[in-house]
Prior knowledge:
Layout: H1 6-16, H2 30-47, E1 51-55, E2 58-61, H3 62-78, H4 87-102, H5 107-128, H6 131-140, H7 145-165, H8 172-181, E3 187-188, E4 191-200, H9 212-230, H10 235-242, E5 258-259, H11 265-273, E6 283-284, E7 288-298, E8 301-302, H12 305-335, E9 339-340, H13 343-357
Antiparallel strand pairs: 1-2, 1-9, 3-8, 4-5, 4-7, 6-7
Helix pairs in contact: 1-3, 1-7, 2-3, 3-4, 4-7, 5-7, 8-12
Amino acid sequence: MKLKLILSAALMAGVISVTAATETAAPKSAKAAATNADPQAAMTALFGDPVIVKGSGFEIKRSELDEVLAGAKANAASAGQTLPQDFSVGVLNQLITIQLLLQKATEADRAAGKTDADLQFTNLVKRFGSMEAFERQLKAVGMTMDNLRGKAMQEAVAKTALKRELKIAVTDADAKDYYAKNPADFEQAEMAHVRHILLMTIDPATRTPLSTNAVAAKRKQIESLLKRVKDGEDFAKLAKEFSEDPGSKGNGGELPEFHRGEMVPEFEAAAFSLAKDQVSDIVASAFGFHIIKGINKTAAKKIDYAIVAADLKEVLARRQIAKLAPDYVKKLRADAKLEILDPTLKALSEKVEAAAMAPSGNSQ
C-alpha cells in the first residue's frame, strides 16, 4: 500500500529488471538494458535534444521523456508485455504536472521532498543489498546516481506541494479506522529469505534458449558447484565468483525477502521448502539452473498498525488527491499556456483527451 514515486519508479524499472533473473518476469540483462539505451544516445547525437513542451516558466526536452519511457519499456519487456500506444502521453502529462507543481513549491515543500526522496533511495539500496551493487546496476543501464536522485527529488517536491495546495490531511483516527475495518489489507504472507547461484540457460539479451551443448555445459558446471557447496566451500564466495544473476552475485547471491507469487514456481517451491542454512539440489527454471541456500523464513502474520501507519496515511492521502487533483491541475495547465511542440505527441494527446471526454456508450 506504499505511495511510490511514479516517474522515478519508472526510471528504476529498467534497473530493477536487470536483477529479476529469479522473479516471475523474464530477465532483462544489463547488456540488453544498455543496448536499449544506446539508440537514444545515438538519436540525440544525430538530431539534438528538442524541446517538446513549453509552458510559462519551464520547458521539457525529448530526452526527459525518453529517459522515463526507457525504464518503463525495459520493465514491460522483462514481463513479456508491451506498453499501450498512449503511454507516452501519460508520462508526458506527469512530467508537465511535476514542472507546474515545482513552480508552486515552497522551501518547506523542498525540504520535505528531499526527506521523502532520501527515504526512497535508502529503500532502493536495501533492495540491491549495498550501495556498490546499486551503483553497478545504474551504470549497467547508462544512468547516474545524481541523475536518478534529481528526478526523484523533483517528483517528491511536486507531490509535497500538491498535498499542501489541496490541503490534504489524514489523521491518526482516519488511518486507525481504515486499519480496523480492512484487516485483510494488512495480512503479511509467509516470507522466504535465501541466497542462490544461477547459471543461465537462456541468452539474457534475447531470452532465447542456449544451444543443447551450452545447456549441457551449464548443467555440468552447476553440478560441480553443488558438490563444492556440499563439501563445505563458502556459498556466498562461490555465488560472487560464478553466479550469472547480476543483481545478487555481488552480494553473495543474497536476494531480498519475498512472498509466494513473486518468483517462478520452481524457484519458489524450493526456496520455501528450505530450513535455515539448508542447501537445495539443482533447481531448473525457465532462466537456468539454480542452487539455493536458505537464510530464514518468516511466518504469515498481521502487520502491526505502527508499522503500516505512515504508508497507510499516504494511501488515504492519495485517495483524497485523486478526487481533488484533476480540476486543480487542469487550471494550472490553462494558466501556464501549455504548448506541445512535437506534432506526433500533440496529435496523440488530443486523441487521448477526446477519448476521455467521449461518452461511454454503454447506456441502455
